[in-house]
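Lecture notes, continued. The same structure-token format from the folding unit now serves as the input rather than the output. Read the line below as a description of shape only.
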């Protein structure tokens, strides 16, 4: 007897199934090796190109209530000091169209909703360095347009502050000369990743320096009974 031949139907099934199996296998290998990288790029691109802003508003507490007038003789015990991750103010640079929420802390939720004060630095009114970070492709993208002499306003739940921009610098991420968080006079330092059009973390930072102009200074002395 002669050899049996496969039907055209069997060949058709093989032609369809084998490429599918090959593609699935390739996808699993690529996803296993590069899954975290692909996810990061996708999330970053989504923040920049998404038509609708993602809602992270339920992930934090907002204690910011605008103050119409600054209070003289403000004592530390008179204010509600923010806990890590809470919004307690807003930061504005009107000359370059920056108007964003201000958080205490720079975790992921804070930086997706606004800008955040580095936990190891000070807050406005406490007489030292206020170090504020934000993403270069969202709320701090317009830092590229700042110039010396511009005014930065910070409104908190206990007072309103103004700072005057004095300088800008591009430095390496770990440059220890970029700022001094132990300074004995109040100043503001804002920073973001550089270049401004890069997605994700970069090796350089763009720093903006500003001197204290006005706002209530908080008395931190402890009263004795």
């Amino acid at each position: 007897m002669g050899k049996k031949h496969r039907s055209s139907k069997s060949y058709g099934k093989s032609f369809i199934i084998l490429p599918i199996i090959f593609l699935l296998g390739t996808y699993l290998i690529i996803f296993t090796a590069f899954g975290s990288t692909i996810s990061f790029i996708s999330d970053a691109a989504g923040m920049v190109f998404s038509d609708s802003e993602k809602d992270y508003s339920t992930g934090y507490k907002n204690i910011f209530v605008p103050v119409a007038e600054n209070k003289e003789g403000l004592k530390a015990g008179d204010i509600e000091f923010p806990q890590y991750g809470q919004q307690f103010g807003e930061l504005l640079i009107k000359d370059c169209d920056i108007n964003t929420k201000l958080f205490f802390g720079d975790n992921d939720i804070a930086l997706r909703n606004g800008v955040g004060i580095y936990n190891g630095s000070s807050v406005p009114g406490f007489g030292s360095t206020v170090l504020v970070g934000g993403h270069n492709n969202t709320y701090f993208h317009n830092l590229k347009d700042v110039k010396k002499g511009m005014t930065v306003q910070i409104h908190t739940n206990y007072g309103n502050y103004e700072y005057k921009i004095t300088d800008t610098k591009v430095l390496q991420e770990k440059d220890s000369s970029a700022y001094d968080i132990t300074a004995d006079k109040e100043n503001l330092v804002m920073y973001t990743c550089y270049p401004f059009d890069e997605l994700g973390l970069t090796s350089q930072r763009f720093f903006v320096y500003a001197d204290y102009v006005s706002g209530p200074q908080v008395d931190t002395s402890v009263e004795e009974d």
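Point for the exam: Residues 57-214 form a domain with the Sortase; Chain: A; fold (CATH 2.40.260.10).
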